[in-house]
Design brief:
Layout (H helix, E strand, L loop, with lengths): L3 H23 L5 H17 L5 H7 L32 H22 L5 H8 L3 H4 L1 H20 L5 H19 L5 H15 L3 H11 L2 H32 L2 H22 L14 H12 L2 H29 L7 H7 L5 H16 L1 H18 L5 H29 L4 H61 L1
Helix pairs in contact: 1-11, 1-18, 3-10, 4-8, 4-11, 4-12, 7-9, 7-19, 8-9, 8-10, 8-12, 10-11, 11-12, 11-15, 14-18, 14-19, 16-17, 16-18, 17-18, 17-19
Length: about 475
């Protein structure tokens, strides 16, 4: 949704810096002149082993060691040639070019993805479809995005990072513009599904590019700018499309977002430095991936966290999909511009994610996850009010709780996974976007049957299921720490 992978990527980037700092300061004492040479040798060993490369290791916190026996601790044993491919150092022009380019990529990706969400009532009027059918314009895109991210996570090691992201942004922007001219509902859904497949190239590769090219000392800031871009895009896609639809039409709104996406792509392409440290290579065989995925699915705790992603994202998207129908009708009678302005509360996620991380360190992940789900439940109850300020407060509580819960759950993946952590993260994101697609669509049936009380009741029950899973995880965490 800041989106699905947005807070996952942010929390992963924090773990990158901490893990690298830990190994640099506390592992084998190595004089600083030899440090880059050792890191270069480690990268080569990871590539020779056929793993998914430095990116997965960094993002999941794998130790900075090779597969060979531990060498002598003396500095003389590390007589390796200097690294010929330096990082993008923080403060250098190339570093800022890369960071700003990825900010524009994040903006374009999530503005294109969610620009239709405030327009669902307009689709109902134009095409004569039900609210549940209208929500498919979001669901088919997130479903195809889930598949694209899952596949790209395994095959992106053989393609140019720069080229793949540029093609992804260009294709998805053009497809968004095409949507504005389509005469039929089914054609619109088909193109939106293609758009989800095209968009998958950015979330799957953006973090990989930064982790490979940017020096660890500056990775947190660069990743933060990417996260900020996704937050701005998630909000702008909703707000700008709502304003344009109010003053012109939904077709102008979607076309305008597509044009802005193309402009952002041009800036991205002009600024992003070419990959210097990435070496394309073939991925591992299907049997390896199948065995690793089967091992993850046997892990009960990991299955529970994956369920959290399904519930958190599914309930969040369901609320945002249908709250527009509630606010556009009596007693609120809001315009599209006013509804779009309410989506500014989406930015509470920028505060929620780091806050929940600090609280998890103090009180434990299980307790913070339970608190986040309880806040979401409280927010859903508030949306039943006939007072607009109370409803807005409910949306804000739901949003804050979602990002807090998602941050904690995504951070738990690496701790619970006993096999390749990158594949465990891919499973989490797959469930995350399937929840968005399936539950976001089902919510429309509850709207048709019982209006907003039906939608809020549906979300309430799902959150109770999530609460049960969070309590199980809390007990497991207490048992491990005992």
């Amino acid at each position: 949704m800041i989106s699905a992978e947005t807070m996952f990527y942010f929390s992963a980037s924090i773990r990158v810096g901490r893990k690298l700092a830990s190994h640099r300061n506390n592992a084998i004492p190595i004089p600083s002149p030899f440090r880059k040479s050792i890191e270069s040798a480690w990268r080569s060993s990871r590539q020779n082993r056929g793993d998914h490369g430095i990116v997965r290791a960094l993002a999941t916190g794998d130790p900075l060691v090779t597969s060979s026996p531990a060498p002598s601790r003396s500095a003389s044993s590390f007589s390796l040639p200097p690294d010929p491919l330096p990082y993008l150092e923080r403060g250098s022009p190339a570093y800022w070019h890369a960071a700003i380019a990825l900010l524009f990529a994040g903006y374009a990706t999530f503005s294109l993805l969610y620009c239709v969400q405030p327009l669902l009532p307009e689709f109902t009027k134009t095409f004569g479809v039900s609210p549940a059918e209208s929500a498919l314009s979001v669901s088919v895109t997130t479903a195809s995005l889930a598949v694209a991210i899952f596949i790209a996570g395994f095959v992106s090691e053989g393609s140019s990072r720069h080229r793949l992201m540029t093609l992804s942004l260009t294709a998805s922007s053009l497809l968004t513009i095409i949507v504005a001219f389509l005469p039929s509902w089914h054609a619109l859904l088909f193109v939106r599904a293609l758009e989800g497949l095209a968009l998958g190239g950015v979330p799957a590769v953006a973090m990989a590019y930064l982790a490979e090219e940017v020096h660890p000392d500056g990775l947190g800031l660069a990743m933060g700018l990417y996260v900020g871009g996704t937050a701005i895009g998630g909000m702008a896609g909703r707000v700008v499309s709502g304003i344009l639809a109010d003053f012109f039409s939904w077709r102008v709104a979607i076309g305008g977002i597509g044009v802005l996406g193309l402009l952002a792509t041009l800036v991205f392409r002009a600024l992003l430095p070419p990959s210097r440290r990435f070496v394309p290579r073939a991925g591992m065989g299907f049997s390896h991936h199948r065995t690793a995925l089967a091992g993850h699915l046997k892990n009960r705790g990991l299955r529970c966290v994956i369920l959290m992603g399904f519930v958190l994202m599914g309930t969040f998207v369901t609320l945002y999909n249908y709250v527009g129908y509630r606010l556009i009708a009596a007693p609120f009678n809001l315009s599209q511009t006013e509804i779009g302005a309410i989506f500014v509360v989406y930015l509470t996620g920028v505060v929620a994610s780091p806050w929940s991380g600090k609280m998890a360190d103090i009180f434990g992940r299980g307790r913070v996850l339970i608190a986040a789900l309880l806040l979401m439940i409280f927010g859903v109850v508030l949306t039943l009010s006939s007072s607009l300020p109370v409803v807005i407060a409910g949306i804000a509580c739901m949003t804050f709780g979602f990002f807090a819960g998602h941050s904690v759950a995504s951070g738990w993946i690496g701790l619970l996974a006993k096999g390749p952590k990158g594949q465990a993260a891919a499973l989490y994101l797959l469930a995350y976007y399937i929840g968005s697609s399936v539950l976001g669509s089902w919510g429309g049936h509850f709207w048709t049957i019982a209006g907003w009380p039906g939608v809020s009741g549906f979300v309430f029950v799902l959150l109770l299921i999530g609460l049960g899973g969070a309590e199980y995880l809390r007990r497991q965490e207490r048992h491990v720490n005992a």
